[in-house]
Please model this.
Amino acid sequence: MPPLAHAEDSVAARTGRLRAAWRTAHEPVAGVSRRLQLTAYAVPLVVLPSSLWRLPAAFDDGISPGERMYIPSLSIVSELLAFTAVGLIARWGEVFPRWVPGLRGRRVPTKAAIIPAAIGATVLTLMFTILALVNEIQGTTIRGDDLPDDFPGEAGGWEAAWFYICYTPLILWGPLLAVLTFAYSKRRRRTDTPAAA
Model:
């Protein structure tokens, strides 16, 4: 076998194993409906437009190196937090994965998942669904100050439209997470309760 063909087979085999491991880790557990699966997969997608919208600002002139690092970091952390919603339907949300030292293979305590998810859903709903809409209607910042003239929504035209297209999906983040948290709680209560004799 020529060396190039052997290298391509090796890469394909590694890619296939990685894809199979990814699919196994994120496959929904028994009792998760197709609708809940789609809801969980939608959470990172509703956060993605705002994460991408911020990235060009990291290359603006006149911003400090700290801001230059903060902007992409905020986008990455936002996406990672949004991706944890998948854990509310996947096996790794119920049993710690093999790579977690000291906990691998043990059941995830139900409250250890529900409490942070419920707090997150509440905060996100207040921040992006309620407070952001109220502030937008009033034309103020979260602190109550008037929106600055350079605020993207105040620019008008294409820039304002692009801003709203990218940030409006964030309204759904908290409510979607709340639905997933409630379903996770209900499912775990059913599976954690020993069957009657």
